[in-house]
Structures are given as C-alpha cells and as structure tokens.
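Extended Data, panel c. Modelled sequence:
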Amino acid sequence: MVLPLIGAFAAGGLVNQMRKAGQRKEIDELVKNSLKDRLGDPTGGFGYQTGYGPGMLLPTSGYQSILQYQNQMGNQQRENMIKNLLAIEPITDRAKARDFERNMAAARFRTQLGTQQGLTLQGQMGAQALAQKGMTGATQALASNYQYQ
C-alpha cells in the first residue's frame, strides 16, 4: 500500500521536473533571442559558426547523417591504410628476402664449420689410433729383436 503512494509521488515529481525544464528552456530561448536582437547576430549573418565554413561542421540533421559521416570517415581511413600497406609491401618483401638470405648463409656457414670440425676430429682420432698402433708395433719389435752387448 505504501509503494503505490511512493510511485504516485515520484510520478508527480517527475511531471513537475519536466514542467520546470520546459519553462527553463522557454526562458533560455527568450533571453537568447533578446540578446541577439540587442547585440546582433554573432556570426555576422553567415548562418554558421564564426571562423568555420559549412563544410567544417558535422552534419546536424540527425543520427543517420552523423552515422553516414562516420562511415565515410571509416571508409576513407581504411582506403588510406590499404594504400599505405601497398606502398610498404615491396619494401617489407625485400627486407624479408634479405633476412632469409642472411639466415641461409649463416646456416651454410654453421654446417660447413660443423663439417670441418667433424673432419678435424676424425683426423685427430685416426692419427692417435695410428700412433698407438705404431708404438705397439715398435715396442713389440724392440722386445723380439733383443741384442746382447
């Protein structure tokens, strides 16, 4: 029972606020018009804001025209971005190709270096094995060919 009463008071308060807002709007318009009559048109009769031509202002005929303007701006920015990307593409392709060539040259160098190290190691191991066999053979030869003095 208390809630319907609160709702009625709230609705009445809302109506009063709307009525007062309408009165304020009428008063603001009267003051603006009386100042305009006394001081003259601030734009000098051009019909738009001082310092800006009509092409500088956003369309003011409503939501649809503002949305159309934003869509046009978005399309223009997208076209500019595509043009910029197409202009940059040859440069980035050349840079990527040079980077790939550098990486391939480094890979070839690493492979050659690894191969040379492997061959050197094999040669050292082979020389060591031959030296061990030679020492064994020399030791056996000295042991079997003894001489008395």
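The mean pLDDT is 76. This feature is highlighted in the accompanying rendering.
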